Input
Amino acid sequence: MKTVLVTGANRGIGFEICRQLGEYGFNIFLSARISENGKLAAEKLNALNISVDFLQMDVANEMSIKNASSEFRKINKTLDVLINNAAVLEDSNDITKMPTDELLNAIITNSIGAFIVIREFLPFMSEGSRIINVSSEAGALNEMGKYAPAYSISKTTLNAITKQFAAALRQKNISVNSVCPGWVRTDMGGFSAPRSVKKGVETIVWLASEAPQNKTGFFWKDKKVIDW
Output
């Protein structure tokens, strides 16, 4: 049974990733910032006969990530798939007036947090493991406009982190990829979004379970490579 850790998984895209990979037979580690929310999500999945353990982790807090890594070490399991899903979208939509804290919060949560999570959980990963960073086309430089500047910049940074880790881990046969799930109907995406959560996680689940292992260092949408 393969093991996957999904960050920010108490709702939305993260929860659906856990549900689908659980149906594939993965052993799920669901992480969330707020313990009560994470435990409730784990209970819902357990009720569906999906094997889920909760791991409290605030990706905006380095010590919280290190504590989660220490807790995982006690379990003595190999981590086959790591999915960095946790993110925030709290944007003023005007970079000319954007407070510094707004940009810092987005970068710390959406990109630096993913970097620390990869670094701290990498010791549990071996040859053939997979790392998947949930990004956005908002972070693609060729598509970028003025939409959500803090969020967009943070996702560009996440894509750069993806490329760096992919290059560093290629010889160890650990694949690292970014994914754009599209505009999905979640609390973050809003309920006018055109995509269902099920459709949004399709490529993420494919990369975690079926995609060729040698596909690494790419930016994906709908199982196709897209431009950075």
User: Anything to note?
Assistant: The chain has a mean pLDDT of 95. The chain is about 40% helix and 15% strand. The first strand starts at residue 3 and ends at 6. The helical segments are 12-23, 35-46, 62-75, 100-121, 149-169, 197-200, 202-209.
